[in-house]
Specification:
- By secondary structure, the protein is of the alpha/beta class.
- The protein has a single domain, classed as Alpha-Beta Complex (Protein-Tyrosine Phosphatase, Chain A), CATH 3.90.190.
- The chain has helices at 2-18, 108-116, 141-144, 162-172, 176-184, 201-212, 217-226, 234-246, 250-256, 261-271, and strands at residues 21-22, 25-26, 34-35, 40-41, 43-45, 68-69, 79-80, 97-100, 121-124, 148-151, 191-194, 231-233.
- The strands form 4 sheets. Strands 6-7-8-11-9-10 form a 6-stranded mixed beta sheet.
- β9 (121-124), α3 and β10 (148-151) form a beta-alpha-beta unit.
- The longest helix has 17 residues, at 2-18.
Length: 273
């Protein structure tokens, strides 16, 4: 099984590295239209994985087909990242790290499913201000009152490009210690990380978490490109990964911004099997 998985992941990474197409028009994260970045990069609207309806924090096979949709009525682009392998041979458990669009429209069914998924932490990456912000369009009360909710208050930058992703990374740095503090506390997982449509700020923050857990960068980019209901380009996130690498790698980068080694170790304990 492990040999089959390794071959599958190697083949997938090779395909990701060799496939490319030009950027085109991208969906907006709110009312402002988004455009693709210049140059060649992989562009995809992913629908990979299977729909998950519960089983919070369950086991995962790490069989080379990680992630997939999560049923959560009232929310869009809800995707879990379970099944991703790590460099030390561990595996990310299903439904412990979920990213999505906003949770403002959750009603009775959505709130019941939130409970069924055993979501204990919600990281809202939206800015507080603005027409789609957390102040104007707050998450449902079952989220803000029923979970360990944290609003990171990160401004939306459009169109999505490698440069706008780097600017978003810089804007997130002052919030990293608080975000990791929430995620790594006892009972901090399962968690949802979300923004407006679950594409840019939520995907960037989720990618940082995956890198922290030891998921190889190629698999993090693959998840970003393919485990989506929106169209993205690999180059957007790759710019972030390259920047982190230039600062000594994910652990050194996080510790420069107030995340402790103990928090990193605890997050791995909670998320991996």
């Amino acid at each position: 099984m492990r040999l089959t998985r390794s071959l599958a992941l190697a083949t997938y990474a090779l395909l990701l590295a060799t496939l490319s197409c030009g950027g085109g028009s991208q969906p907006a994260d709110g009312p402002t239209g988004g455009g693709g970045s210049a140059g060649s990069s992989t562009t995809s609207t992913g629908t990979g994985g299977t729909v998950s309806t519960g089983g919070a924090g369950g086991t995962s096979s790490c069989d080379g087909t990680p992630g997939g949709a999560v049923a959560l009525p009232g929310a869009s682009n809800v995707r879990h990242t379970g099944g991703l392998p790590t460099t030390d041979g561990s595996c990310l458990r299903d439904n412990v790290i979920i990213r999505s669009g906003h949770l403002a429209a959750l009603e009775t069914a959505g709130c019941a499913q939130l409970e069924a998924l055993n979501i204990t932490t919600v990281i809202d990456m939206r800015a507080l201000a603005g027409s789609t912000g957390a102040g104007t369009n707050p998450d449902a009360s079952c989220v803000t009152s029923g979970t360990n909710y944290y609003n990171a208050d990160v401004v939306k930058l459009l169109p999505p490009t490698p440069d706008s992703y780097l600017q978003t990374l810089a804007a997130t740095e002052t919030k990293l210690a608080a975000i990791y503090g929430h995620l790594s506390q006892d009972g901090g997982l399962p968690a949802i990380i979300h923004c407006v449509i679950g594409r840019d700020r939520a995907s960037l923050m989720t990618a940082l978490v995956l890198l922290t857990l030891g998921v190889p960068a190629a698999d993090v980019v693959s998840d970003f490109v393919n485990n989506q209901e929106t169209t993205v380009e690999a180059a957007w996130l790759q710019a972030v990964i390259d920047q982190i690498d230039s600062e000594g790698g994910i652990d050194a980068y996080l510790q420069q911004h107030g995340v402790t080694a103990a928090q990193i170790a605890k997050l791995k304990e909670l998320a991996l099997e």
